[in-house]
Amino acid sequence: MMERSEDAAEAGMSNRWPEILVALFLFAIGIIVVNDSIRVGIGWEEGEGPRAGYFPFYIGCILLISSGWILFGALARFKKAQPQFASWVELKSVMQMLVPLSVYIVAVVYLGIYVSSLVLIAFFMKVHGKFGLIATTLTAVGVPLAAFMLFERWFLVPLPKGPIELMLGF
Hints:
This protein has helices spanning 6-10, 16-40, 54-76, 88-111, 113-128, 133-154, 163-167, and strands at 12-14, 44-45, 49-50, 84-87.
C-alpha cells in the first residue's frame, strides 16, 4: 500500500486572503449601496412614507459595519497562523467549474444564450462527464432547442440572442 505525505494532503490556502478579499468586496458594495441610497433619498416623506433609498441605506450601513469588522479582525491577526480555507486540490475543482461558467456568462453577451449554452453543455458533458459524442451532441443541441421553444415560442419571453439567431431571423 502506498503512503501519502500528510503535508501534501493538507497543503492549501489559509483563511487569511479569502476573508480579506470578501470583506473588501462587501465593503465596496456597501459603499455603492449607501451612496446610491443617498442619491435617491433616504428620508421619510410626510404622508407618503419612506423614500426609495430609506431601507437600502440601512442595509448598506449594516454591510459596511459588518464587513469592516471582519476586515479589521482579519488584519489584526494577519501574522498569526490561520486555519485552512481549502486544499489546492479543492480549489482546482472549484476553478474547473468557475472558469467555464465565467466564460459562459461573457459569451452570452456576444453569442446569445442558446449558442453559449450549447457550448457549455457540450464542454461539461465531454470534459467532466466523459459522455460519448452522440449523447453529448443530442443533449447539447436538445436543451437549448427545448429552451428556445419553451421561452421564445410558448411563453413569448425573448432571451438574449446572438448573431446566429439574428441570421436565422429570430
